[in-house]
Amino acid sequence: MIDSRCGLHCTNCKWKETNGCGGCIETMGNPFYGECPVAACCQKKELTHCGECSNIPCNKLYCYSYLDKEHGDKPQGERVAVCREWAAASSKMNWNKVLLTSAGFEDMDGNSKPNITDCFLEMLEKPVSSAKVLFIPTAAIEDDAKEMAELCFLELLHTGISEENITVYNIGEDLSEKEALAFDVIYFTGGNTGYLLKRLKETGFENMVKKMVYQNKVYVGVSAGSLIAAPNIGNPFQEETGGLCLLNAYLSVHCTKDMQEKELPLPHIPLRDNQALLVTYKGYRLIED
Predict the structure, then answer these.
(1) pLDDT digits (tens, 9 = 90+) for 105-115
(2) Per the CB 3.0–4.6 Å rule, which of 47, 108, 191, 229 could disulfide with 145?
(3) Which domains are assigned to the chain?
(4) pLDDT above 90: residue 18
């Protein structure tokens, strides 16, 4: 039952009866403590709940769901997950094409990782030769990362993607929404994760990325491009390092077999170079070569 704008189940709220509160839907965004900015935003956009918004989670919802240690979600991101389930139930946002890799489709010797590559090709749902890729090497600001970005480009060609269908784009360059949504794949290379996230936020391009994902475009991340998909790339309760929240778990890349999971507010996934995560609105599963 949809009983709130943000995904918090008002029917389970301990303040509902003691404060005579009908919840944010019944009170038009004014629960017992006053106006809720999340509900107000949702109602202004004429949305039933935040799951119908292409920018979920926006900064307001992110702060409520992930950063508030006292009143926030336990586990983190719970109300975001609920909103996505509500949206999927009404067929408004049932995305399932996010592929997060530690080191792309091939190993350092140029050998294909068949399970990861096949997953990518299946996600396209069209002939690979006609798929259009928005290739983003923005994170590759150092020489070694630039070399790896070139290898990523070659890996795409090896999957059967036509070179003429790959557009190299650096965040901040002109790109209209119509142009962005014409691509089938958005591909982020590795490099400096902090710089990549900073560019996404300061240009507002993070909103475009979410819109592409929620319209079921294929998202491929390599290293830094995968890390930004998590709820945070640093301190789990620090707003400045908040990620795209496509994956409701914390991620490490280039890990070894003996690396232990970290104790964090959400599950921690130490991803090895022969592994990838297939992420959907429902959750994620591990792919390994």
Answers:
(1) 999 888 999 99
(2) 191
(3) 10-89 (no CATH), 98-288 (3.40.50.880)
(4) no
